[in-house]
Amino acid sequence: MDILQILFWLLTVMAIGCALGVVLSRNPVNSVIFLILTFFAISGHYLLLNAQFLAIVNIIVYAGAIMVLFLFVIMLMNLNADTEPQKSWLVQLAGVISGGTLFLVIIAAISKVGHLGVIDKNATDIGLIKNLGKVLFTDYVFAFEISSVLFLTAMIGAIVIGKKEAE
Amino acid sequence: MKAIIAATIFGVIMMYAGFAVKEKKSIVAIATILLLLLLGVNIWEYKTVVPNAPSLFNFQLRVDSFTIWFELLMTACSLLYVLLIGKDIAKVGKHVGEYFALIFFILVGTYLLASFNNMLIMFIGIELISIPQYILAGSDKRNLKSSEASLKYFLMGAFSTGILLMGITLIYGATGTFNISNFNFLQTEHINPLVLTGLLFLIISFSFKVSAAPMHFWTPDVYDGSPTPFTAFMATVGKAAAFIAFLRLFHTSFGAISGSWMMVLAIITAATLLIGNITAIFQQSVKRMLAYSSIAQAGFMLFAVVSVNAIAWQGIVVYSVAYTIATLGMFAVLLKLKDYTFDGFNGLAKKDPLLAGVTTVFIFSLAGIPLTAGFMAKYYMLQALVMQGKLMGLVIFALLMAAVSAYYYFKVIIAMYFKQGEAELNPDYTTSDRVLLVVTAILVILLGIVPQLLLPAAV
Q: A110 and chain B: CB distance < 8 Å anywhere?
């Protein structure tokens, strides 16, 4: 066990534990805090994969912006009380069965994979900003440009839905 | 590619028109002119297509004559939509320019979905048709049902997008590429279990996007709650775009391993046909009936995906356009009426024989009666499945369900011709509306006689 492996297991336990915390905790504010911790753990995984840029963006965008927004919404709407209506046991059973089936399928798939053999040895520093930018502006330039249309639609949506409709 | 650029620019022009032009009628006119121009660009691109240069941007986009032909047809359908329903779009809310901009951006997404050769582009295309639809669903802000439809659609859509991404990730993990024509990994006998799991996720999320059976629960509420002019667009062009992507992904990249997903999809198809048709019988509102009928029609369109052969490609073109024209016509008729229930159609034949006549043509086409476009569309789909030959049970089941569908479609005709009542019409029903409805009905019949008009010259 070298230091990388110890770090990997530590982060993995943290990520899975916090993800369970998100689902299981009764208080929505606690859920959000757990989610932030999950994002930090996943960012740690990115760092282990030598993808610094992704790690930083993950923290800035998700843990920073989106989660703060979540917290604001929860606090402004005063959702921190335990007001979740209880589902009937039938719905709960259906959820457990379908979720468990999916879990089983994924576990079965992963256990049979073994060694994938598609890991590109030269691509270990692909996560650096320099290489990422190069790929983004050469191979994936079309996808990069066309996403601007997607953001434009999102902005229009914010205006159409958010603007006050005066009579 | 020219069309993608043009549609984006036209969308931006519509945004500016939204605040520069005050008169709502002129905004509709601008949108119509821009769509005509876009159709011109499509035709130009179709005429200048180079046969031996089938892809752009490092194999991310495919520009063969079939994809451009499909794009052209979708633009033509959108033009028909704006001509038939444009007036009613202007009545939904204040942001008319923005609505049309969103429609242009949905067209950009449609072009991407028709021509993608890379799962990244496919994902952007799917988002580009979905996000504007969430917005359009909620555009009638004073109506609680519209907001409910928007929120429901958004939450469910976001969830299915997550599943789609998970599927793409698993397949990328197993193959190491996003390029769908380069999945040489999949051509072998030994299939990686990760691919199969990813495939399952992709099937689930695409079934959601095309409202196939176990994932169809959002459809009636969203289609019923959204403003009727936008429901017409979602149920037609939006659906056709999702289907062409479904078909392209599953034929181009997973065609070689069709044995491992065909049965799952066949069961989904059968369930879609069953649930869509049976539930449609019990509806009181024609708008809600059309929502269930769109689920049932999706069952037929899934035939194209299930039968992996060349006729499926022709079939999806014919079906998309035939279904789109008939459905647009039905929604245009619905917008002329005050009452959307079946009772609202009572006695329409006496009050306005012309309107009742064109409605009958559209209904015939949706039910698949011979001499209408809908019949030829169903014919192509069944032919594709018969040629494939493995799922004859599904063919018989589909015929049975088509017979069931005639029951609820004909309830409209019975209401119009054999029931007493005073169908109330909207006051702004003009002569140009009549002409357009008659032209649409003639189009339905023309395509029922010569469906070859819809196929690209090369295929």
A: yes
Touching check for A139 and chain B: CB below 8 Å? yes
Query: Which residue ranges make up each domain of chain A?
Result: 1-84
CA A49 to chain centroid = 17
Please state the ipTM of this predicted complex. Answer: 0.85
pTM of the model as a whole: 0.91
Query: Which chain B positions have a beta carbon within 8 Å of A140's beta carbon?
Result: 60, 120
Handedness of CA B279, B282, B286, B287 (dihedral sign): negative
Q: Exposed (0-12), middle (13-18) or buried (19+): which is B142, by Cβ within 10 Å?
A: exposed
Q: Which of residues 61-90 of A touch B (CB under 8 A)?
A: none
Neighbouring residues of B32: CB distance < 8 A, sequence distance ≥ 6: B79, B82, B83, B86
* Type of residue numbered B404: V
* pLDDT above 90: residue B56: no
User: pLDDT digits over B269-309, tens only?
Assistant: 999 999 999 999 898 888 899 999 999 999 999 998 998 88
One-character DSSP codes across B350-385: HH-HHHHHHHHHHHHHHHT-TTSHHHHHHHHHHHHH
Region A1-84: CATH code: 1.20.120.1200
Task: Give CA–CA dist B135/A1, Å, rounded.
Answer: 52
Instruction: Say if residue B8's pLDDT is above 90.
Output: yes
Closest CA to B291 of B331, B337, B350: B331
Which member of A118, A140, A159 has the closest CB to residue B176? A118
Domain residue ranges in chain B: 1-253, 261-459
